[in-house]
Amino acid sequence: MRAIHFGAGNIGRGFIGLLLSQAGYKVTFVDVNQALVQQLNERQQYEVQYANAAQERTIVKHVDAIVGTELTQVSEAIIAADIVTTAVGVNILKRIAPAIAEGIRQRMKLHLPPLTVIACENAIRATSLLKQEIAALLPEEISANLERFARFPDAAVDRIVPLQHHDDPLFVTVEPFYEWTIESKHWPRQLPFIHNAHYVEQLDPYIERKLFTVNTGHIAAAYLGQLKGYTTIQEAMQDAELEMEVRTSLLETGAALIAHYGLKRSEHEAYIELIIERFKNPYITDEIARVGRSPIRKLSPQDRLVRPAMLAQKYGIEAHTLAKVIAAAFLFHAEDDQETQELQHYLQKHGIDAAIERFTGLAANEPLHGKVKLQYEQLKAQGKK
Ligand SMILES: NC(=O)c1ccc[n+]([C@@H]2O[C@H](COP(=O)([O-])OP(=O)(O)OC[C@H]3O[C@@H](n4cnc5c(N)ncnc54)[C@H](O)[C@@H]3O)[C@@H](O)[C@H]2O)c1
Ligand SMILES: O=P(O)(O)OC[C@@H](O)[C@@H](O)[C@H](O)[C@H](O)CO
């Protein structure tokens, strides 16, 4: 079986490429980083190390790669593929859609079975977003019946893979934990289930539980941690007061998730503690700059902060810590992150009210808007910036 995976970065090599290979797929990566592509083609394998006491390693073999700008080569590879996966960043999906659309068009002409496409990104229903981008590029007679030519199961992906600083550009250190949850209803009959993935009928509770626990907790540790002068998540999580704030933010999102999805409280609280332990993994150095990057995406209404805070509000749950983390996002700095610069530029020019409204979608008369503003002013007054 053949897989085409867009994005040979940390999640591409350290999670999805690894799992697909373990499931019996020959993996071809597509990436715009030419040096990475060259290395993958020269060596046809790479090493993954697990961040635990044993520091076990495994080799992913029989891989190759294509430069993302080589559209013909990419679409030809898609003709021969059973599955296409992505881990490029949700904002990049529109850029890879043309090659996938072309691959689907060619497959249709050849009467090939439907292609399976899964976007493995941190966003609610990223595969559906990719499907929309692809459909918009295809002629009406194909896009109207797209499910006949390609299947688009939504998925949730969870494994912490920090920035890598090794001499070998292909070597990747990953936490041992992983969860790849795939919605089964769009899975094509002819393709066997990927044995190391978890199939569920309804993805929403899983993706929201993941995003609003792992990613909300992560961003709380990052934004509140930076205000206290820390540069990594592990340093920040050694601060007992900060750990408590992270836990409180997760009890807030947890209460909202429990109310909304009827999750079992004891199970969800155990899940929160598992996530906090993962953040503390002493064998990982995860930079706050990575976890905090792209604050505009992270502040958007459907992402890890505003959506659970609004859900909490809907169920009458106090979301004081979430409001503080949202406020802290407006104080986040990361030198080489474009979204951080854009947000700061807007904030300085238009002020906090306009910035809250623009980036979170919270109108000035929304109670959460007022809470965020208050927290922002308090953080500033405490000399946090
Ligand atoms: N790192 C994590 O812990 C983690 C965990 C779960 C999910 N994710 C999600 O996975 C996705 C990727 O994250 P990452 O940490 O691997 O990032 P990364 O920056 O390490 O990897 C992204 C890769 O995509 C490539 N890329 C960019 N534009 C491209 C294009 N047009 N065509 C092909 N390749 C392109 C980049 O060159 C890079 O190699 C993001 O959506 C992220 O939110 C990350
Ligand atoms: O990838 P982002 O930028 O959406 O979020 C940063 C981290 O929280 C994220 O990459 C986590 O490490 C990951 O989602 C764990 O599964």
What does this entry look like structurally?
By secondary structure, the chain is an alpha/beta fold. The chain has 2 domains: 2-200, Rossmann fold (3-Layer(aba) Sandwich), CATH 3.40.50; 204-381, N-(1-d-carboxylethyl)-l-norvaline Dehydrogenase, domain 2 (Orthogonal Bundle). Helices cover 52% and strands 13% of the residues. Strands 5-2-1-6-7-8 form a 6-stranded parallel sheet, sandwiched between helices. The chain has a 3-stranded mixed sheet with strand order 4-3-10, with helices on one face. It has a 3-stranded mixed sheet with strand order 9-11-12, with helices on one face. α3 crosses α4 and α10 runs antiparallel to α11. It is globular, with a radius of gyration of 21 Å. It starts with a strand and ends with a helix. The model has no long low-confidence stretch (mean pLDDT 97). Nicotinamide-adenine-dinucleotide binds at residues 6-12, 30-33, 68, 87-90, 92, 95-96, 121-122, 157, 159-161.
Summary tags:
single chain, about 375 residues, alpha/beta, Rossmann fold, N-(1-d-carboxylethyl)-l-norvaline Dehydrogenase, domain 2, 2 domains, 6-stranded parallel sheet, 3-stranded mixed sheet, 17 helices, binds nicotinamide-adenine-dinucleotide, binds D-Mannitol-1-phosphate
In short:
Residues 203-379 form the Mannitol dehydrogenase C-terminal domain. This protein has 385 residues and is an alpha/beta fold.
Number of helical elements: 17
| The top level CATH class name of the largest domain | Alpha Beta
Weakly predicted, low-confidence segments: none
CATH architecture of the largest domain: 3-Layer(aba) Sandwich
Number of beta-strand segments: 12
Mean pLDDT: 97
Range of strand content? 5-15%
Rounded radius of gyration (Å): 21 Å
Instruction: Going across the biggest sheet, name each strand in turn.
Output: 5-2-1-6-7-8
| Major sheet | 6 strands, parallel
- CA-CA gap between termini: 53 Å
CATH topology of the largest domain: Rossmann fold
Protein name: Mannitol-1-phosphate 5-dehydrogenase
Keywords: NAD, Oxidoreductase
Domain Mannitol dehydrogenase N-terminal: 1-187
Pfam families: Mannitol_dh, Mannitol_dh_C
